[in-house]
Amino acid sequence: MASNNTEVTLPLPISTSAAVGIAILTLAFVLGFPGNLFVVWSVLCRVKKRSVTCLLVLNLAVADALVLLSAPLFLRFLAGGRGWEFGSVACKLVHYLSSVNMYVSIYLICLMSMDRWLAVTRPFLSQRLRTKRTLLAILFGVWVLAFLLSLPMPFYRRNLEIPLSKTISIKVCKVHHNSKGDRIFQYVFETVMACIVPFSLINTCYSSVICRLQSAKFQRRAQGSRLILMIICAFTIFWLPYHIVNIIEVAGLLQASNSVISAAIKARPNVTAFAYFSSAINPVLYVFAGSSHIRQAGLSFMGKLLEATYSESRTTSTFTRSGRSSSSPDESSVLHTLSVKLGRPFKSKDKERSSSVAGREVDEPELKTLATVEQLE
Length: 377
Description:
By secondary structure, the protein is mainly alpha-helical. The protein has 17 helices and 2 strands. It has one domain (about 10-320): Rhopdopsin 7-helix transmembrane proteins (Up-down Bundle).
């Protein structure tokens, strides 16, 4: 045993798990950091009419770019073989920023879902809320909430000294809990506030939207809706394993099962690196979503994609507000003919009457009858 201790030298050789982590972090940084900066540039310099979705995408890109700045530190830690060389403050700060990114991302996605829900189910309220002042206040609230929810993270990270031999030791930035209760609290809190609560809200909003659009037979293709669904699916794929490991470790702690706890501890570094990659995937999704614009617009394709969400949000609210989601060309011509016959635009009671007329043929006698009744009123 003593002979093995004397053979320890620095830097340490790179393990298989460290090599996998290096590959993931390098790919995340190479794709994600310039990709998110490109999104920020596109929104600020190429988009003239910014929708709510556009501004939420901007904030999401800023959050992802900030957390990816920590990638070089983790790469040095994994590849250097000398432990964590950046001190206790950096150890706490990079994990705090990662936690902020997790909360900002999921609650921005919640706002995207709620905006879509309001546009479809409460169009008048949606238009009143879509002001610059209201949106900035909500975005400020999301960032403040994310910073507050992440406060426990620095308390559970320590730059601990790990002895390798009698003469050699390294410092490692790792999770450290003072008690079993602290450990359970952290993982339950993260899973509830960053998974269960926001995804319940997202599922509720989109279930309501789907039911409303199906009942209205709203068949219009929506780029913004597809983009939001892609972001939601990507976030779920990359973060769900992390929260599953949280649940497994909490279950092991409550049952005092060392084998379950050990399995969760072994899986945690891999699922954490996988979740970290979520900050790099959104720019890739935007390329796929805006592929139809790339040939025509070139580097301005992102601006075209996000400008489409502006026109779409206005059209969705207009269609929903007027109750004409399923309008056909024949129905539109009928309503136009009625307005000409009556000699003035339809009011609220005319809309009720037109909805009963829509969907069936209207002959000339019926038009005359409706005009006569309207004149008598």
